[in-house]
Amino acid sequence: MIQLRHLLSASDLDRGTAVEVLDTAATMAATQARQIKKLPPLRGRTVVNLFFEDSTRTRISFETAAKRLSADVINFSPKGSSVSKGESLKDTVLTLGAMGTDAIVVRHAASGAPHRLAHSGWTDAAVVNAGDGTHEHPTQALLDAFTIRRHLAGGGGDLAGLTVAIVGDVLHSRVARSNVSLLTTLGARVTLVAPPTLLPVGVDTWTCAHSYDLDRTIDELRPDALMMLRVQHERMSAAGGGFFPSPAEYQREYGLDAPRLARLGREAIVLHPGPMNRGLEITSAAADGHRSVVVEQVANGVAVRMAVLYLAMTGKETP
Predict the structure, then answer these.
(1) Pairing of strands 163-167, 189-193
(2) Is 235 an annotated catalytic residue?
(3) Residues 93-140: pLDDT tens digits?
C-alpha cells in the first residue's frame, strides 16, 4: 500500500510510487470504457476545487475525476467570493473546512501555496497541487508520463531507455519542472530545448540535459517524445517582455512544423499541455497530425486524477 496523503510536487514520488499511481490510473482508465463510468469509492466525500487562477482543462478534469468516483464537488473561484473583499487563503480554507472538506485541489499564482496549505494546520484535508506559480504541476506530469507509457512502453512499467525533449518556454513552465523530475525518476532521458532567455537560472543543476538548438536535438537525439510548451505571453508581459525578438523568429527556431515533424522517428509522439498557440510553438499540421496525442492527454488526465484522488483520500492501492 502506498502513502499519498498529499501530492504537492512530482519529487514527492519515488519510482515505485509513481509506477503504482500510473498502474492505478490504468485501472481507472479501463473503467471509463464502460457504459456506466461512475465508481463508488468516494461516495460521501467532498472535494473542493480551489482555483485562484483561470483554468479550463485542469479544473474540469479534476471535477470530472471526482464525480466519476462519486464524490461531491465544490468549485471555488475568487471572483464573486470573499477573496475579492480581501479574505486571506487561511480564512478561505478554514471556512471550507468548517463545511466538511476531505480533499482540496488548489491552483494558485504563488509558488509554494499548496505546500503552505498542506503543512499549515489549517486543514486536515488531502491537498493536491493543480499548479502553483511557475513552480510545479505534478498531475500534468503524471498524465504526460501515462500517455508516453501507453504509446512507447507497452502500457506498463517505467520509462527506462526512452528519450524526451521538452521544447519552448521552460522559464515560466511549471509543467516542465514537474516533467523533468517525474520523467527522470521513471528512467527517461530528458533534454530541455529553448533559447537562453527561456531557460531558468540554475538549469545546469537539473536532472536533465539542455540545448539551444531544436534541429540539432531532433537529428542527434531522435527523441521518442517531443513535448512542446506554450509560450506564456501573460507571464512575459508581467516581467517586461523581451524574451525573444519576434514571434516569427521564435516559430522559425523553436516551433514544431512539418519539416521537423518529418524528421522525427517513426514511432515518435508529440505532446502539448495546452492551451496551444497554434502557429507559434506548434503548427496545426503538427497539433492535429497522427503523431499528436494532445487530445488523448486530456482524456488520460481524468484517469490520472481519479487515481490521485482515490489514493490520497483512501490510502488504498487498487480500486
Answers:
(1) parallel
(2) no
(3) 898 888 889 999 999 999 999 999 999 899 999 999 999 999 999 999
Q: From the candidates 57, 115, 233, 278, give the one annotated as an active-site residue.
A: 57
Interval 186-233: pLDDT, tens: 999 999 999 999 999 999 999 999 999 999 999 999 999 999 999 998
Neighbours of 294 (CB within 10 A): 19
pTM above 0.90, yes or no: yes
Residue 100's alpha-carbon distances to 45, 124, 176, in angstroms, are 9, 10, 34
58 is catalytic: yes
Q: Quick check: is 134 catalytic?
A: no
- Residue 124's nearest CA partner among 102, 105, 96 is 102
Domains of the chain, with CATH numbers? 10-135+301-314 (3.40.50.1370), 138-297 (3.40.50.1370)
- Whether 107 is a known active-site residue: answer yes
